[in-house]
Write a structure and sequence with these properties.
The chain has about 180 residues and is an alpha/beta fold. The protein has helices spanning about 15-30, 75-80, 115-120, 130-140, 145-155, 165-180, and strands at about 5-10, 35-40, 50-55, 70-75, 85-95, 110-115. It is globular. Keywords: Oxidoreductase.
Amino acid sequence: MFRNKIIVAGSGGQGALRVGQMIAYAALNEDLEATWLPSYGAEMRGGTANCSVIITDGEIGYPMLSMADYCIIMNDASLEKFEKSVYPGGTLILDSSMVSRPVGRKDLRTFYVPADKIAEEEGNPRGANMVLLGAYVAAAGSVSLEAVYTNIDHSFTGSKAKYAESNKRLVKRGYDLIAAQPQE
């Protein structure tokens, strides 16, 4: 049975919860089972924000998790809190534009992604989370780019529709960055 346990963590306003939600919806688009559980700090913007996602082709008996296969980290505080929550042999994906210290563990597959820098280059400074989403898709292989793109089209409608194509480009940049690296 296939199962991915994912933690996405950052500060409020960085889009950590959106990334987790996008992963869960992409899994549902691919006929997988998914849960998404958000957790907020005292304040939304600037406070801590993280979520846990489980995707599987089986049943989800318990939606909470204390350990993850994949962890997407958007800042130093999140690395400090969640580095120990990844199973040995698991994967860390970090925004190297925002995380200032290296990962201390040697038993993890780690990808340093300059997500903020890439988002700035693309003219979408709030899109670093989409770069990290693409990096996860490439590293995990559990959902397809097409499922993520479908979700973007459904999420960015009305006055936000103008951001859909930019966000797809950012997802693709993150995906390509990881896909180009040797996989262990």
